[in-house]
Amino acid sequence: MTFGQGLLVAVLAVPALGAVAVAATPRDRAARLVGTVAAALTLLAAVPLVFGGRGWVAWSADAPAVRPWHQLDLPWVPGLELRFHLGVDGISWPLVVLTALLTLLCCAYTMWRVPGGGSGRALVALLLVVEVGILGTFLALDLVLFFLFFEVVLLPMYAIIAGWGGADRRRAARKFALYTLFGSVLLLVGVYVVVAAAGTADLVTLTGGAGMSRGTQLAAFTLLALAFAVKSPLWPLHSWLPDAHTQAPTVGSVVLAGVLLKMGTYGLIRVAVGVAPEGARWAAPVLGVLAVAAILIGSLVCLAQSDVKRLIAYSSVGHMGFVLLGVATLTATGIQAALIGNVAHGVITGLLFFLAGAVKDRTGTGTLAELSGLRETAPRLAGLLAFAAIASLGLPGLAGFWGEAFAVIAAVQVGGPLWTTLGVLAAVGGALTAAYFLRLLRQVTHNRPSPAVGRVGPGLAGAELTAWVPLVLLALAIGLAPTLVLGVAEAPVDALIGVVSR
Amino acid sequence: MNVVQSVDSVALLPAYLAAGTAVLVLITDLIVARPRATIAVAALGALGTAVGSALVGAGAERRTFCVGADCSWIFGGRAAVVGGVVALLTLGVLGLSIPALRAGRSPVGEYAFLLACSMTGGVVLGAAGDLITLIVALETLTLPLYVLVGLRRGSLASAEAALTFFVVSVVATTLTLLGAALLYAVTGGLHLDRLGALLAEQPELRDLPLTTAAVAVLLVGLAFKVAAVPFHAWAPATYDGAPLPVAAYLSTASKLGGLIALLAVVQRALPAEQTGPVLALLAVLTMTVGNLVALRQRRTVRLLAWSSVAQAGYILAPLGALALAAGRTDDARSAAYAAAVAYTVFFVVLELAAFAGVTALRPAGADGGTLDDLRGVARRHPWRAAAFGLALVGLAGLPPGLAGLFAKVTVVRALLDGGAAWLALVVALNAVIGLAYYLRVTAALWAPTPLAVPDGGGAAAVPVVGVVAVVLAVATVAAVVLGVAPQLVLDLAGR
């Protein structure tokens, strides 16, 4: 086993063993510490995956479209075409690091504050299990294994929402579980439609269509795209999201918005588009229209929201719309936009949910009408909130800008009346995004302090700063140097586009 | 023709062991008259039967009671799997029964004897090579259950359940026999393989209305036994009225028996063109109705009963692929049969674990109670609740219950290999409905208990009987092992 393979195994094994260790540690605080250490080690194993294994030359006609930097391929269940095939490349690595980072921050945050409802120990253990599922999804290079990890996330996340969430948590958690399972059973059928037609589940072989007939590709793409549309979520399959995000505890919302949604968009790029390119070309206009509808509808709904967490949740629908628009263009620019949009949304929305949670914890309310004048009593918190909101609305120089701008550019570049219109409408949606975030800031930070805000002290806890500062810095770093993400993703995206547009 | 048949006693060894167990239990109960000894004999006998099945099955296929090329007893790979699984299930159910037997709710000797008799039927069933052996074995499997269901002293529900079960079962058997008789009238054969060959060679026989009627009647009779919708109405009432361990036996070993009988007939005797559409329809109805009704259940065992109706639908689903021409190629057919067997094995392990979980979480000798009785039990009994929860999640087909997930995957895969994508979608969507109620039970285990519950209410500490804990642990470990290495089951099922 090479060093890279060892890292791949470690990235999954450390959080899994960490979850077991957390569950086995009797004292609550010690258990949370163990969990945080495990999450930190996972991040330490995830980062160096970027080194080595990249000594390959430009794309050539017979090379596979997926060329992982490191991979590990072991047989597991031959009867079901399931192999334990892991690998990492420039499309998955940024998401792997983002997942490891956000989980670490959430675990560290839990050291300081455990939301009411259950023990902190169980919460940290569940967070680590969720991490295993998400990382496995990003690393899997076998379709069936991908599906398996996709499913792993479901129940722990359900338990996090149902156990530690807000007043209406049970209904929200059930809705989350049923919607998501609806998506993943379609994924199961889609996966085996592909496997039955191609005779293999290996993503490296399958990427590019593997000679599947047009009919099979259309069916497979429809099923897979529906499955990922539920997870992303794409309008009109998004209605689980606002409830789940609003009711989940802060760390749950962060993981949900930060990385769980990315499983959908990542799957769309790697699996749906990669495996059924002909289906993708066929469905691209529909996806584009739905993506723009999501942007516009998400923004308009946000303008009418009266709850902070709900507003941020709906803003995810709009942001994911931009990501999906990028994918739908099926151009290198568009997919690059989608990838950086994914990462940026994870960083910024993670931060926004942390901040919204902090506001809610301090004031006891999330209703916009009861919040105002935060900058009078808690200037630092208000400042951070302003920073996150501005980053999210896509100010140039911050992370949110690249994904949205390049999605629009890609749509316009594709040309033709349809895509030009979509590009223009998406740009209008971008303006609406600015409108609702500015409305949020005006209501929450400006004016006289409301009674609820008046009680808030100006200080920030050390744990809060520890959790937030890395995200602030990342939002700046990606905004100023998008090549952090795009640099590693360029070659694999070109290879993917090479087979998709063949 | 040689009148004296040579009998291959090695092939019959598992049946000898099972029947011997029943006789020994009876004698021990008469002579030693100590419950402990009786149970020990039954347990050892069941274990011996399982080992015997495995040993005989490890070798080549053995046939005996042959007339020409047609044999009534074919002990091959599948018979070994069925025999072994039935014997192990009997052992598990015997373990679950110990608290109730200790509480004196049922007479020990009779109970163990009847259970051993039923096991004999199950072992014979797997090896049956003709319709008469098949039906007699199936009856040997179910006949003792009529008594077992009603064996709870002083329980009216139990007696009612037994009567319902008895009446429905007798009707079902009659129908099956009628079907067999009609088939004999048409073809002059009763051996499964011979029937299959005759009907394949002579299409004009297949097109006779009488053949269609015979096939339909035979299938309906067997569908009663597996509680497939619309022949399912007896199951929930019977399960709920029966003592918990007997309900466990009904939904595992008895269901396995019915399915194996159905499978034997469909695979070897009947023309797939005729059975395929019927089975596809039965599968769709069974899983959908089972899941929808389970959503509304408030009593634990009723919920499990309806869920097991739905599960029978998943088991039948791969056979539904035979409805399409693409599903009738040799590869697709053997994949479908293997998938049905594999799903059944995954299912019985999880179902036994679930029933063991209920038994472990309820007071000794109690019935399943309502879902509210299980509310918050995880706070007092984290391990037992975790094992029960794992079984439920597995039945729903989700990680961490990987065994259940692979079971669903196997079925979906077989269906897509057979070109029946629509049926695969129905299975998939039903899994979503299924999750809704499995999740409700699982969530209830960890739910905060309402303060108003008086002492002795739902979350009161329940001491667990050691044997029940062992059965629960073994079933859970088996489920976990099959979840990590599902290839074991797939290999066995493909034999």
TrEMBL record, chain A:
Q: Reply yes or no: does the keyword Transmembrane helix apply.
A: yes
Keyword set includes Transmembrane:
yes
Compartment(s): Endomembrane system; Membrane
Entry GO terms, CC: endomembrane system; membrane
Which residues are listed as membrane-spanning?
6-24, 31-51, 91-110, 122-140, 146-164, 176-198, 218-238, 250-276, 282-304, 311-332, 338-360, 381-412, 418-438, 465-489
Instruction: Please list the coiled coil stretches.
Output: none
**Family matches, as Pfam families:** Proton_antipo_M
Q: Which UniProt keywords apply?
A: Membrane, Transmembrane, Transmembrane helix
Give every NADH:quinone oxidoreductase/Mrp antiporter transmembrane domain span: 140-427
Instruction: Give the record's membrane topology.
Output: Multi-pass membrane protein
Task: Please tell me where this protein is predominantly located.
Answer: membrane
**Which GO-annotated molecular functions does the record name?**
NADH dehydrogenase (ubiquinone) activity; NADH dehydrogenase activity; ubiquinone binding
Q: What is this protein called?
A: NADH-quinone oxidoreductase subunit M
Q: Which organism is it from?
A: Micromonospora inaquosa
Q: Taxonomic classification, please?
A: Bacteria, Bacillati, Actinomycetota, Actinomycetes, Micromonosporales
Automatic annotation (TrEMBL), chain B:
The residue ranges crossing the membrane are: 12-32, 39-60, 80-101, 113-141, 161-187, 208-234, 246-266, 278-297, 303-325, 337-361, 381-407, 419-439, 459-485
- What's the domain of life for this entry? Bacteria
- Membrane topology annotation: Multi-pass membrane protein
Q: Where in the cell is it found?
A: Cell membrane; Endomembrane system; Membrane
Q: Name one GO cellular component term.
A: endomembrane system
Give the Gene Ontology MF terms in alphabetical order. Answer: NADH dehydrogenase (quinone) (non-electrogenic) activity; NADH dehydrogenase (ubiquinone) activity; quinone binding
Functional note: NDH-1 shuttles electrons from NADH, via FMN and iron-sulfur (Fe-S) centers, to quinones in the respiratory chain. The immediate electron acceptor for the enzyme in this species is believed to be a menaquinone. Couples the redox reaction to proton translocation (for every two electrons transferred, four hydrogen ions are translocated across the cytoplasmic membrane), and thus conserves the redox energy in a proton gradient.
Q: How does it assemble?
A: NDH-1 is composed of 14 different subunits. Subunits NuoA, H, J, K, L, M, N constitute the membrane sector of the complex.
Q: What is this protein called?
A: NADH-quinone oxidoreductase subunit N
Q: What organism is recorded for this protein?
A: Micromonospora inaquosa
Q: Lineage of the native species? A: Bacteria, Bacillati, Actinomycetota, Actinomycetes, Micromonosporales
Gene giving rise to this polypeptide: nuoN
